[in-house]
Amino acid sequence: MSQSLQRGLALLNTLAEGPRNLDQLAEAAGVHKSTAMRLLRSLESARFVNRPDAHHYRLGSALFELANCALDGIDVRAAARGKLRELGERTGHTVHLAVREEDRAVYVDKVDSSRSVRMYSRVGARAPLHCTAVGKVLLSGMPEQDRRELAARLEYPALTERTVTGAESLLAEVDRVLAEGCAFDRGEHEDFVHCVAAGVRDPRGAVVAAVSVSVPKVLLDFDELLGWSGELKEACAHISAELGWQPHG
Questions:
Q1: In Å, how far are 43, 123, 196, 198 from 62, measured between CA atoms?
Q2: What are the residue ranges of CATH 1.10.10.10 in the chain?
Q3: Tens-place pLDDT, residues 171-208
Q4: pLDDT confidence tier of residue 115, bands split at 50, 70 and 90
Q5: Might you name a Gene Ontology BP term for this protein (predicted)?
Q6: Which CATH superfamily is domain 74-243 in?
């Protein structure tokens, strides 16, 4: 790496802590003020640095544009793959990764169960939002007004006797997801399967995907399934960290 580039990066890293004057920046980069000034002028011309007043410098808009491009380019499937496999190995059950496309959840990755009794599902399959654990998690990540509007537009086919069949009931379920950090499907989508799901967050804190553990009831009762919710949420936190999310505190 060239010396000028190293010094320029040192200036940017210092400005990441807040606005600084020329003396502070020169000291941080370990250069004379004239050298720091020359570097800052180059950075300012490219919008990596700007001057809020005559004596201070701060990070410029070009850095935020680059950061947004980098964040948009992160592939949630690639970031999640290792943890999905690990969760599948630990539980021995089917693990799904899903994202929302308009009014449906779409499975974008899957780790099959190691048990002899398996679920039929496939990557690319679409599932309802109102009666799946992943769907409820994805709804919980929407702004409240958008969530209410979408809930009002959804159709509510009763796929089993336990399926939620109205917007208000669904919104109440989503409120519980927000409070508890995970969602459940107690035989609402398929009466012989139950699921628990939690959310994956992007660097801005938005829920961009959901991970679920799904189990046929003959293999695990609901209370036993709940026992995996802590590890599921921990896996989602790790995936979120891979995407750049940093929880407050």
A1: 10, 37, 41, 35
A2: 3-69
A3: 999 999 999 999 999 999 988 999 999 999 988 889 99
A4: low
A5: negative regulation of DNA-templated transcription
A6: GAF domain (3.30.450.40)
